[in-house]
Amino acid sequence: MGAEVAAAGGGGLPGFLGRKSRYARMDDVLPQEPEDGGGVRVRGSGSSRRYVFACSVFASLNHVLLGYDVGVMSGCIIFIQKDLHITEVQQEVLVGCLSFISLLGSIAAGRTSDIIGRKWTIGLAAAVFQAGAAIMTAAPSFAVLMAGRLLAGIGIGIGIMVAPVYISEITPATLR
């Protein structure tokens, strides 16, 4: 959580709607730490590396969502067309909208992660994606299926944008 230390003299990043951000820039001067350590515990290098590696693996699994969702949809579209009686244009829109919608999700991810933090934003992205997947699973019509697809795309976009930032923030400076 070293990135969440406020910069000395209020030199933090400009926050959402004019509020001060709690994140410090790397070139800002941080306040001096107390000589007694201030009660901060530092993990050993082996433990820290394992923790960072485990967090990195789980955060990177977010990137699998995009490829998996595109791949699964290309295999399912035949059955969706038969069950919901959709046209070829609707099939194309259903399959192709994910990339565009994930772009919109990634645009929203920056402000969201500044407000609630990177870890919680990754959790939010997972929840939004799961909600979209649940809606797609129970979709009785093309409109409901499309709504679920849009939700899943937003969740994927948020996750793809925030996961690399989170990984870089949890990595100790000596390992970057």
Automatic annotation (TrEMBL):
Q: Which GO terms describe its molecular function?
A: transmembrane transporter activity
Q: Which InterPro entries match?
A: MFS_dom, MFS_sugar_transport-like, MFS_trans_sf, Myo-inositol_Transporter, Sugar/inositol_transpt, Sugar_transporter_CS
Q: Where in the cell is it found?
A: Membrane
GO cellular-component terms in the record? membrane
Note one Pfam family from the annotation.
Answer: Sugar_tr
Keywords from UniProt, A to Z, are: Membrane, Transmembrane, Transmembrane helix, Transport
Q: Which PANTHER family match?
A: PROTON MYO-INOSITOL COTRANSPORTER, SUGAR TRANSPORTER
Q: Which family does it belong to?
A: Belongs to the major facilitator superfamily. Sugar transporter (TC 2.A.1.1) family.
This protein is called Major facilitator superfamily (MFS) profile domain-containing protein
Species the sequence originates in: Eragrostis curvula
